[in-house]
Automatic annotation (TrEMBL):
Region (Disordered): 236-266
Single GO MF annotation: protein kinase activity
Entry protein name: Protein kinase domain-containing protein
Cited SUPFAM superfamilies: Protein kinase-like (PK-like)
Location of the Protein kinase domain: 1-234
Length: 266
């Protein structure tokens, strides 16, 4: 990408402003050096929240309300990217590219930057590779909004299971993917006594499964994904005293204070 193309593309990215996107504030083009300056987010990444940092003993499974809040934040931010006049795509969705804001709102970073990648470079690490849609695992294939939807679905599966995609979860589990996710969720939360809505978890799982359809044309648009997530969050929760009617959840201490949408200005 030459200097003019770089500057034009960065200007497009720099004009994006949304509460669920990490803002690009400045850039530098000097000879062979290119620098981008983004807002600083002190609360770390979603990856660290789910899996723990290198210095910790590991992350805690997220409560279902946190899963839904994070999912709605990210669907809202991704839809904003997709609605740019140029039809921009994120191109590199993964939990390490989600940062947590001052109020623990979830914000995408690294969006639209895949165009700057050297096509001859090797970025085929297991985690990065299996977030990508099957049609985009060839490094020569350009990113697309349909591929973003697939990656978003993998991210939802990571939220639901606490498992990073070190293998191709979709291909490995196939039609058994929903059963596998439910079994993981049950195993990781069975020791907690806090009730969760199994119906809401299943609804979010169904959204994730729709997103990771192997055929790009079968994947929903992000506006449809966001609508489904919003509807899932709005549904009232009926907690039964019968333990068989719900599956327990476990809070992450870090995200217990996540605010509701009506407490945030957009």
């Amino acid at each position: 990408m030459n200097t003019d193309e770089f500057c034009r593309h960065v200007e497009v990215i720099g004009r994006l402003r949304h509460r669920n996107l990490v803002a690009l504030r400045a850039y530098l083009q000097a000879r062979e050096e290119r620098l981008l300056v983004f807002d600083y987010f002190p609360n770390g990444s979603l990856f660290s929240l789910i899996h723990g940092s290198k210095t910790s003993s590991g992350g805690k499974p997220l409560h279902w309300t946190s899963c839904l809040k994070i999912a709605e934040d990210l669907a809202t931010g991704l839809l904003h990217i997709h609605q740019t006049p140029s039809g921009l795509s994120h191109g590199n969705i993964k939990s390490s590219n989600v940062l947590l804001g001052p109020d623990f709102e979830s914000c995408f970073t690294d969006y639209g930057l895949i165009s700057f990648k050297n096509p001859n470079s090797d970025d085929s690490s297991a985690v990065s590779l299996f977030y990508r849609a099957p049609e985009c695992r060839d490094s020569q294939t350009p990113p697309s909004q349909q591929a973003d939807v697939y990656s978003f679905g993998v991210l939802l599966l990571e939220l639901l299971t606490g498992k990073a995609p070190y293998q191709d979860l979709v291909a490995d589990h196939g039609s058994d993917l929903p059963t596998w996710v439910k079994s993981i969720r049950q195993k990781e939360t069975e020791s907690s006594g806090e009730p969760a809505s199994s119906a809401k978890l299943e609804a979010l799982l169904n959204i994730a499964v729709a997103c990771v359809s192997v055929a790009p044309d079968n994947r929903p648009l992000m506006k449809e994904v966001l609508r489904m997530i919003k509807e899932t969050r709005m549904e009232p929760v009926h907690v039964s005293s019968n333990s068989s009617d719900h599956s327990p959840g476990r809070w992450s201490d870090t995200v217990q204070s996540l605010p509701r949408d009506d407490q945030l200005s957009i």
